[in-house]
Protein 1
Amino acid sequence: MIEESDSIEDAQSQLKRADHLLYVTLKYTRTVDVIKSIIKRFISAFDHSVEEMLEKSKDKKRIKTIPKSPIEKIELIKKIVKTKEMRDYIKFYYLLRTIDKATFKPREEYRKHVTLITPKHEVDVEKVKEFYEKTKEFVGFSHEFKGR
Protein backbone atom coordinates (compact mmCIF):
# COMPACT_ATOMS: atom_id res chain seq x y z
CA MET A 1 0.00 0.00 0.00
CA ILE A 2 1.30 3.45 -0.87
CA GLU A 3 1.37 6.04 1.87
CA GLU A 4 -0.47 9.21 0.81
CA SER A 5 2.53 11.43 1.54
CA ASP A 6 4.59 9.19 -0.74
CA SER A 7 2.08 9.63 -3.56
CA ILE A 8 2.12 13.41 -3.38
CA GLU A 9 5.89 13.46 -3.06
CA ASP A 10 6.15 11.17 -6.08
CA ALA A 11 3.80 13.41 -8.06
CA GLN A 12 5.80 16.49 -7.12
CA SER A 13 9.03 14.67 -7.96
CA GLN A 14 7.67 13.86 -11.43
CA LEU A 15 6.75 17.52 -11.88
CA LYS A 16 10.27 18.59 -10.91
CA ARG A 17 11.74 16.19 -13.46
CA ALA A 18 9.30 17.41 -16.11
CA ASP A 19 10.20 21.02 -15.26
CA HIS A 20 13.90 20.28 -15.76
CA LEU A 21 13.24 18.42 -19.00
CA LEU A 22 11.10 21.28 -20.27
CA TYR A 23 13.18 24.28 -19.29
CA VAL A 24 16.70 22.86 -19.48
CA THR A 25 16.95 19.66 -21.52
CA LEU A 26 14.44 20.59 -24.23
CA LYS A 27 15.98 24.04 -24.55
CA TYR A 28 19.29 22.52 -25.64
CA THR A 29 18.39 19.23 -27.35
CA ARG A 30 15.08 20.06 -29.06
CA THR A 31 14.00 16.51 -29.85
CA VAL A 32 10.59 14.85 -29.83
CA ASP A 33 12.01 12.15 -27.56
CA VAL A 34 12.33 14.79 -24.84
CA ILE A 35 8.74 15.91 -25.46
CA LYS A 36 7.59 12.26 -25.16
CA SER A 37 9.54 11.92 -21.92
CA ILE A 38 7.93 15.05 -20.51
CA ILE A 39 4.46 13.74 -21.39
CA LYS A 40 5.27 10.45 -19.64
CA ARG A 41 6.24 12.45 -16.52
CA PHE A 42 2.90 14.29 -16.65
CA ILE A 43 1.04 10.98 -16.85
CA SER A 44 3.04 9.63 -13.93
CA ALA A 45 2.30 12.75 -11.86
CA PHE A 46 -1.41 12.28 -12.61
CA ASP A 47 -1.24 8.61 -11.62
CA HIS A 48 0.41 9.41 -8.29
CA SER A 49 -2.05 12.21 -7.59
CA VAL A 50 -5.05 10.01 -8.33
CA GLU A 51 -3.56 7.35 -6.07
CA GLU A 52 -3.38 9.93 -3.27
CA MET A 53 -7.00 10.96 -3.83
CA LEU A 54 -8.14 7.35 -3.71
CA GLU A 55 -6.16 6.75 -0.51
CA LYS A 56 -7.91 9.72 1.10
CA SER A 57 -11.29 8.42 -0.09
CA LYS A 58 -10.50 5.00 1.31
CA ASP A 59 -9.50 6.54 4.66
CA LYS A 60 -12.86 8.36 4.71
CA LYS A 61 -14.59 5.03 3.95
CA ARG A 62 -15.96 6.27 0.59
CA ILE A 63 -14.42 3.27 -1.19
CA LYS A 64 -13.38 -0.18 -0.03
CA THR A 65 -10.54 -1.01 -2.40
CA ILE A 66 -8.29 0.79 -4.81
CA PRO A 67 -8.08 -0.71 -8.30
CA LYS A 68 -4.72 -1.70 -9.76
CA SER A 69 -4.91 -0.24 -13.27
CA PRO A 70 -4.57 3.51 -13.91
CA ILE A 71 -7.70 3.60 -16.10
CA GLU A 72 -9.82 1.91 -13.42
CA LYS A 73 -8.46 4.40 -10.86
CA ILE A 74 -9.38 7.35 -13.09
CA GLU A 75 -12.87 5.97 -13.68
CA LEU A 76 -13.36 5.47 -9.94
CA ILE A 77 -12.18 9.00 -9.11
CA LYS A 78 -14.59 10.28 -11.79
CA LYS A 79 -17.43 8.67 -9.83
CA ILE A 80 -16.21 10.12 -6.52
CA VAL A 81 -15.52 13.68 -7.67
CA LYS A 82 -18.37 14.80 -9.93
CA THR A 83 -17.26 18.33 -10.70
CA LYS A 84 -16.73 20.02 -14.05
CA GLU A 85 -13.15 20.73 -13.02
CA MET A 86 -12.49 17.03 -12.43
CA ARG A 87 -14.09 16.09 -15.76
CA ASP A 88 -11.75 18.56 -17.47
CA TYR A 89 -8.72 17.05 -15.70
CA ILE A 90 -9.79 13.56 -16.72
CA LYS A 91 -10.21 14.62 -20.36
CA PHE A 92 -6.74 16.13 -20.18
CA TYR A 93 -5.33 12.91 -18.69
CA TYR A 94 -6.85 10.89 -21.54
CA LEU A 95 -5.40 13.37 -24.03
CA LEU A 96 -1.92 12.86 -22.55
CA ARG A 97 -2.32 9.08 -22.71
CA THR A 98 -3.55 9.28 -26.31
CA ILE A 99 -0.56 11.38 -27.34
CA ASP A 100 1.81 9.05 -25.49
CA LYS A 101 0.43 5.89 -27.12
CA ALA A 102 0.08 7.29 -30.65
CA THR A 103 2.57 6.80 -33.42
CA PHE A 104 4.43 10.02 -34.00
CA LYS A 105 6.90 11.78 -36.21
CA PRO A 106 9.08 14.79 -35.56
CA ARG A 107 8.93 18.13 -37.29
CA GLU A 108 11.78 20.63 -37.13
CA GLU A 109 13.72 18.45 -34.75
CA TYR A 110 16.86 20.16 -33.36
CA ARG A 111 15.31 23.54 -34.20
CA LYS A 112 13.40 26.18 -32.26
CA HIS A 113 9.94 24.95 -33.30
CA VAL A 114 10.37 21.23 -32.65
CA THR A 115 6.97 19.55 -32.83
CA LEU A 116 5.73 16.05 -32.09
CA ILE A 117 3.14 15.12 -34.71
CA THR A 118 0.54 12.38 -34.08
CA PRO A 119 -2.40 11.57 -36.34
CA LYS A 120 -4.71 13.83 -34.28
CA HIS A 121 -2.43 16.24 -32.41
CA GLU A 122 0.57 18.49 -32.82
CA VAL A 123 2.57 19.12 -29.67
CA ASP A 124 5.13 21.91 -29.73
CA VAL A 125 7.07 23.55 -26.90
CA GLU A 126 4.29 26.04 -26.12
CA LYS A 127 1.74 23.24 -25.91
CA VAL A 128 4.03 21.31 -23.56
CA LYS A 129 4.22 24.40 -21.33
CA GLU A 130 0.40 24.52 -21.23
CA PHE A 131 0.34 20.82 -20.35
CA TYR A 132 2.85 21.48 -17.56
CA GLU A 133 0.68 24.20 -16.01
CA LYS A 134 -2.45 22.04 -16.23
CA THR A 135 -0.63 19.11 -14.60
CA LYS A 136 0.64 21.37 -11.82
CA GLU A 137 -2.94 22.55 -11.22
CA PHE A 138 -4.15 18.97 -10.95
CA VAL A 139 -1.41 17.97 -8.51
CA GLY A 140 -2.40 20.95 -6.33
CA PHE A 141 -6.07 20.04 -6.67
CA SER A 142 -5.41 16.44 -5.65
CA HIS A 143 -3.29 17.51 -2.68
CA GLU A 144 -6.16 19.67 -1.37
CA PHE A 145 -8.72 16.91 -1.94
CA LYS A 146 -10.24 15.84 1.38
CA GLY A 147 -11.77 12.52 0.43
CA ARG A 148 -15.26 14.07 0.57
Protein 2
Amino acid sequence: MKVILRQDLDNLGSIGDVVEVKNGYGRNYLIPRQYAYYASPAAIQRIKFERKQYDKRQEEQKAVAESLAAKLAELQVSIPMKVGEEGKLFGAVTGQAIAEQMGLMGHNIDRRDIIIDEPIKSLGVFSVKVKLHKDVVAPLKVWVISED
Protein backbone atom coordinates (compact mmCIF):
# COMPACT_ATOMS: atom_id res chain seq x y z
CA MET A 1 0.00 0.00 0.00
CA LYS A 2 1.32 3.45 -0.87
CA VAL A 3 0.73 6.28 1.58
CA ILE A 4 1.79 9.92 1.83
CA LEU A 5 3.21 10.89 5.22
CA ARG A 6 1.65 13.85 7.01
CA GLN A 7 4.47 14.21 9.53
CA ASP A 8 8.04 13.12 10.14
CA LEU A 9 8.21 9.52 11.38
CA ASP A 10 11.41 7.83 12.50
CA ASN A 11 12.55 4.96 10.29
CA LEU A 12 9.83 5.70 7.73
CA GLY A 13 10.27 9.15 6.20
CA SER A 14 9.45 12.82 6.44
CA ILE A 15 6.37 14.87 5.65
CA GLY A 16 5.26 14.61 2.03
CA ASP A 17 7.14 11.37 1.26
CA VAL A 18 5.29 8.66 -0.64
CA VAL A 19 6.23 5.36 1.00
CA GLU A 20 5.26 1.73 0.55
CA VAL A 21 4.02 0.09 3.76
CA LYS A 22 2.25 -3.13 4.68
CA ASN A 23 -1.52 -2.96 4.28
CA GLY A 24 -2.27 -3.53 7.96
CA TYR A 25 0.26 -0.94 9.15
CA GLY A 26 -1.19 1.68 6.85
CA ARG A 27 -4.87 0.85 7.44
CA ASN A 28 -4.72 0.19 11.18
CA TYR A 29 -2.03 2.57 12.41
CA LEU A 30 -0.92 5.36 10.05
CA ILE A 31 -4.24 6.45 8.57
CA PRO A 32 -6.47 6.28 11.72
CA ARG A 33 -3.90 8.32 13.68
CA GLN A 34 -3.72 10.79 10.77
CA TYR A 35 -0.01 10.19 10.23
CA ALA A 36 -0.62 9.49 6.53
CA TYR A 37 -3.07 9.70 3.61
CA TYR A 38 -3.79 7.08 0.98
CA ALA A 39 -1.63 7.99 -2.02
CA SER A 40 -3.90 9.68 -4.56
CA PRO A 41 -3.66 12.77 -6.79
CA ALA A 42 -5.98 14.73 -4.47
CA ALA A 43 -3.90 13.76 -1.43
CA ILE A 44 -0.72 14.94 -3.19
CA GLN A 45 -2.27 18.40 -3.68
CA ARG A 46 -3.46 18.46 -0.06
CA ILE A 47 -0.02 17.49 1.30
CA LYS A 48 1.66 20.26 -0.71
CA PHE A 49 -0.51 22.80 1.11
CA GLU A 50 0.12 21.12 4.49
CA ARG A 51 3.87 21.04 3.77
CA LYS A 52 3.93 24.84 3.26
CA GLN A 53 2.14 25.35 6.58
CA TYR A 54 4.47 22.87 8.31
CA ASP A 55 7.58 24.62 6.97
CA LYS A 56 6.27 27.99 8.12
CA ARG A 57 5.56 26.65 11.65
CA GLN A 58 9.01 25.03 11.79
CA GLU A 59 10.72 28.32 10.86
CA GLU A 60 8.80 30.16 13.60
CA GLN A 61 9.60 27.48 16.19
CA LYS A 62 13.26 27.50 15.16
CA ALA A 63 13.47 31.28 15.59
CA VAL A 64 11.98 31.01 19.09
CA ALA A 65 14.35 28.15 19.92
CA GLU A 66 17.39 30.12 18.73
CA SER A 67 16.47 33.09 20.93
CA LEU A 68 16.01 30.76 23.91
CA ALA A 69 19.35 29.09 23.09
CA ALA A 70 21.09 32.46 23.33
CA LYS A 71 19.59 32.97 26.80
CA LEU A 72 20.51 29.46 27.95
CA ALA A 73 24.11 29.84 26.78
CA GLU A 74 24.54 32.60 29.38
CA LEU A 75 22.65 30.73 32.11
CA GLN A 76 24.30 28.70 34.88
CA VAL A 77 22.39 26.20 37.00
CA SER A 78 23.48 25.12 40.49
CA ILE A 79 22.42 21.66 41.64
CA PRO A 80 22.85 20.95 45.39
CA MET A 81 23.60 17.26 46.05
CA LYS A 82 24.51 15.10 49.03
CA VAL A 83 28.23 14.43 49.05
CA GLY A 84 30.20 11.61 50.62
CA GLU A 85 33.91 11.29 51.19
CA GLU A 86 36.34 12.52 48.56
CA GLY A 87 33.68 14.67 46.87
CA LYS A 88 31.70 11.77 45.41
CA LEU A 89 27.95 12.18 45.12
CA PHE A 90 25.31 9.85 46.49
CA GLY A 91 23.76 9.02 43.11
CA ALA A 92 24.14 11.09 39.98
CA VAL A 93 22.79 14.35 38.63
CA THR A 94 19.91 13.55 36.30
CA GLY A 95 18.06 15.45 33.61
CA GLN A 96 15.09 15.56 35.97
CA ALA A 97 17.09 17.43 38.63
CA ILE A 98 18.39 19.93 36.07
CA ALA A 99 14.88 20.44 34.63
CA GLU A 100 13.44 21.07 38.10
CA GLN A 101 16.15 23.62 38.92
CA MET A 102 15.57 25.37 35.59
CA GLY A 103 11.83 25.41 36.32
CA LEU A 104 12.56 27.28 39.55
CA MET A 105 14.51 29.80 37.47
CA GLY A 106 11.55 30.31 35.12
CA HIS A 107 12.63 28.15 32.17
CA ASN A 108 10.30 25.22 31.48
CA ILE A 109 12.46 22.58 29.80
CA ASP A 110 11.39 18.95 29.50
CA ARG A 111 13.77 16.48 31.18
CA ARG A 112 13.92 14.40 28.00
CA ASP A 113 15.40 17.38 26.13
CA ILE A 114 18.44 17.55 28.44
CA ILE A 115 21.35 15.57 27.03
CA ILE A 116 24.01 14.46 29.53
CA ASP A 117 26.95 12.87 27.69
CA GLU A 118 28.56 11.23 30.73
CA PRO A 119 26.99 10.58 34.15
CA ILE A 120 27.69 13.42 36.59
CA LYS A 121 28.89 11.81 39.82
CA SER A 122 31.21 14.39 41.37
CA LEU A 123 31.31 18.03 42.39
CA GLY A 124 32.34 20.59 39.81
CA VAL A 125 31.27 22.39 36.67
CA PHE A 126 29.84 20.39 33.78
CA SER A 127 28.49 21.22 30.37
CA VAL A 128 25.25 19.62 29.20
CA LYS A 129 23.19 20.15 26.06
CA VAL A 130 19.56 21.16 25.83
CA LYS A 131 17.69 20.19 22.66
CA LEU A 132 15.24 22.99 21.94
CA HIS A 133 14.36 22.13 18.34
CA LYS A 134 15.42 19.42 15.93
CA ASP A 135 18.07 21.82 14.54
CA VAL A 136 18.88 23.82 17.70
CA VAL A 137 20.94 22.52 20.64
CA ALA A 138 22.00 24.93 23.39
CA PRO A 139 24.90 24.48 25.82
CA LEU A 140 24.15 24.80 29.52
CA LYS A 141 26.65 25.12 32.35
CA VAL A 142 25.76 23.04 35.45
CA TRP A 143 27.46 23.61 38.80
CA VAL A 144 27.21 20.62 41.13
CA ILE A 145 27.61 21.83 44.71
CA SER A 146 27.36 20.29 48.15
CA GLU A 147 24.08 20.62 50.08
CA ASP A 148 26.00 21.56 53.22
